[in-house]
Amino acid sequence: MYFVQFLLLYNIYCFANVNNNGVDSSDLYQYSNLGNYGETRQEHNGVKLSHTDSMATTLEESIKRIGMLEEKLRAYDKDSMRIKILQEKLLATEELTQKHSYRIDMLEKRLQKSEHVRRIQVNVLQRRLKVFENRFRVAEEHLSHLDDFEVRLSLGEQHQSELIFESRRRSRTDRHLTNEVYFQNNEVTQAAEGFAGIGVNPSNYKERPKTGHSLSREKLITGYISKGMRDRRDVQHLRIGFSTLHNQHGESVHVGQTILYHSVLFNEDGAFDSSTGMYRCPVSGVYFFTIAACSSNSQRIHVNLILNGQVKFEVFGGVGNDNTIIHDSLGSGSTILRCHAGDMVWTRILVGENIGRLTSFTGFLIWGDSQSS
């Protein structure tokens, strides 16, 4: 603003001291001395008038120029204010940029750390993936083995069902034979008692007419009665038999192991050895053996009866334990075997790991060889 005022005063000063034709006050003074003062005066006034007009015109132009300059100056001031605002914004932007740069640096550091951690995690996951792949291959191999085992198990279950059916059939046969032997012994005893009570006289047979059929029948009856009386006297002296009970909870065994029985309920002749679980037949004859088997850990059990190393019959126990005996958890079976003096009879575990306390082994002599001759 002060600059504009200075320009205005300077222009007025210049117009006041310089005329339009370039004539100053000294020239006018010279004209007056030449004697042409009147004309010169008029001319001088005309010059001054024209000079004044030109000054007015110049002033108007100067005023216009000053107005234009003022407008430009105001525009410059506005631009200066805008520049100042922009400078302030630029400073704020620089500060914000510095802050963002710091945050960017921090984020880059965190990103580097995250990448490092991610690489470590990727390596760990790759190692774990390899381990899982190995386990998966092993599991597939086990699965193939399990498939084979399932096939074998199905065949084994089928064979087991057949063996169970055969064992039950043999049990029924054994019971039938036992009943038959019992009835025969009763018949022999009754016939012997009747023969002794009647007091048959041999002369009576001479008085009767004898045919070939009646003679053979009499000999058969007499021999049978004599044999029955002889057998009755022998049976009174023979007390051969044993009965044992495992009576121990959860004893671990392995396949093929001989079962030991810790409670000996009956061992009249002392032929059963509880330390080995084996029975030595004291005399030759026909023996009756029975087995009852159960498991103590809810697993199936399979027991064999062995005579001199040979399997004679098998018993299958169902799922059960010592505390909760369920239906078909206790498997049992019986058989009749001809044994010789010194033969060894024992039981052996085939399937199962734990023997229940109710597992038992019993046997006794039905008749000796002297009785069967």
From TrEMBL:
One of its GO terms (cellular component) is extracellular region. The keyword Oxidoreductase does not apply. It is found in: Secreted. SUPFAM superfamilies: TNF-like (SSF49842). Its main location: secreted. Pfam families: C1q. PROSITE patterns: C1Q (PS50871). Residues 1-16 form the signal peptide. Keywords: Secreted, Signal. PANTHER family: C1Q DOMAIN-CONTAINING PROTEIN, CEREBELLIN-RELATED. This is C1q domain-containing protein.
